[in-house]
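Researcher: Next sequence.
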Amino acid sequence: MISFSFRHVVRVLSARRFYTTASGASSVITPTHSIYLSTSTNPYFNLSFEDWLFRHASQKEPLLLLYRDAPCVVIGRNQNPWKEVNLRAARAQGIPVVYHVILRAVRSLGVDADVNERNDICVGGEKASGSAYKIVSGRAYHHGTMLITTRLETLGDLLRVSKDTMITKGVASVRSPVCNLAQFSEKVSHDAFVNAVVDSFKAEYGVHDKPCIVDDTDDLARIGYIQRGMAELPSWDWAFGQTPEFEYTIKKSFVWGDVTAHIHARHGVILSCTLQGLDSELGKALEGKRYGFIEDEELGVDVSGREEVVWAWLKEEMSSYE
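Model: Next structure:
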């Protein structure tokens, strides 16, 4: 899967320098180019570099960044990871989200693509590209992904989650059937798509610059802004600590009776947990703990007998993503 970023903005900011050794010798690169191609497949680097360009490049000119990540799942900031992603499947896989320009590029590869009512690029009614947007201080930003030769069966496993009783205040994804561009034309490949998008971008905006090639060399990784981004993205605070408020109600029958748990959490932290059918302080002990990341020793209360059985069930439910 390849990602692309596109901006068209209005004011100039001062440029900060950074360096790359992709050609064997360090050369100065500034955020003043029109087109950037990243050879890195590290999603933490690419997302950090993308954000660096968004916040430091000129606001007067359009800018294109293309990169391909190693297998990963990227969801929106206002989405709930427990609701959107099968994290158990993700861990099993070893995994750490400008239409006329892109559409013209896809069609140039012999693929009869179109744009649906949600502004997704589709082929034969199936989605091949999704997008996200933001506007910050006069900067308009469009981030998109394109499925080229992605393992669709793995993608399905990662995004197959059944938590109907989890009610979230976040933005829920709209489920859609997906496809790879390579299914529809022998001309489609990663390199062919990159070249087609670059050509379409140049034609649309009258850009004549050659693409600037970057990678995640040590010199780049030491740049403060990028370094902080690469450290922040894998952290619990970033991945789970910004989760919108949600409530989750679950029920289980035991040999001695039924127990219903109602969990209320915000920013990944349990605010309350009520247990119907069990006279215990266990629910109170969970308050203030990180949802899905609670170790036995963190409880602060002794659990035995029925409490031990119920705690094992709760822990399994909170760490389960199916």
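Model: Residues 7-26 have pLDDT under 50 and may be disordered. The first strand starts at residue 2 and ends at 9.
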